[in-house]
Design a protein that fits this description.
The protein is an alpha/beta fold. The protein has two domains: 2-52, no CATH class; 59-214, Rossmann fold (3-Layer(aba) Sandwich), CATH 3.40.50. It is 40% helix and 11% strand. Bound molecules: 2-acetamido-2-deoxy-beta-D-glucopyranose (3 copies). InterPro entries: Alpha-1-2_FucT, Glyco_trans_11.
Length: 217
Amino acid sequence: MKALNDLHLVLIAALIQILKSIIHDSNATWLLLNGHYYQSYKYFHEFRNEIRAIFEFGPKVMTAINKYASDIFGNDKSHKFCVHIRRDDFLQHRNLESRTYFVVPAVLRVFKFLQRESGVHNVSAVFIGAKPDFWDALNVTQNFSPHFDTVYNARLSSRGEDMAFGATYCDSFLISASGSTFGWWMAYLGNTAMPVFYNGQAFPNGSRTWHCLTYRA
Ligand SMILES: *[C@@H]1O[C@H](CO)[C@@H](O)[C@H](O)[C@H]1NC(C)=O
Ligand SMILES: *[C@@H]1O[C@H](CO)[C@@H](O)[C@H](O)[C@H]1NC(C)=O
Ligand SMILES: *[C@@H]1O[C@H](CO)[C@@H](O)[C@H](O)[C@H]1NC(C)=O
């Protein structure tokens, strides 16, 4: 079994609070959950607002990301379309990592969607989590610069800052590696009205079995 990371522990603490608020007047000592896979937002979506309040980012991380955002964005008021990239450990993992053949056409498709369906015209793309080798492989100048006001490669100094930045500064969001819990949480904690797009393929073999990721705002 995969080790629980901090995020899972925070989530478990949140779920316990919620269960306490649902199960009134019980003097039971134990609560036995007899399922085997609880990693789905469907178990807590009803409490989305409470979850968002529990996950509110602290002042230290907010100060750091606000400064970073004002440094990179300056006066750029365009719509910020964020593209979450996750590779690293996914290259050895059963989850499918972000790949150029998905990211390039998906970014252009979302750009067209935003223009046509949402009437957004001045759009900047903001990549989050793209390391230098992947950034180079994307051929940004050739593939994206003609379409977007500006293309940013956001490089924050920790995963916590990455998450706070993604949840705070994006107007639309693409999860390009659907097995990434960080990408998913950025979108879930972000603006509740923002459109979220994701890769329907979650595994290298083409299986779409991550039903828990079929999240729509
Ligand atoms: C918005 O986009 C148009 C067309 O791409 C461009 O001419 C204009 O300068 C942009 N406006 C801003 C405020 O960036
Ligand atoms: C980037 O450019 C190189 C050289 O033209 C090309 O071989 C490669 O397929 C391009 N990659 C993408 C993702 O556009
Ligand atoms: C695809 O990979 C996933 C994860 O390793 C596995 O659960 C699933 O059974 C595989 N599907 C097929 C059709 O091989």
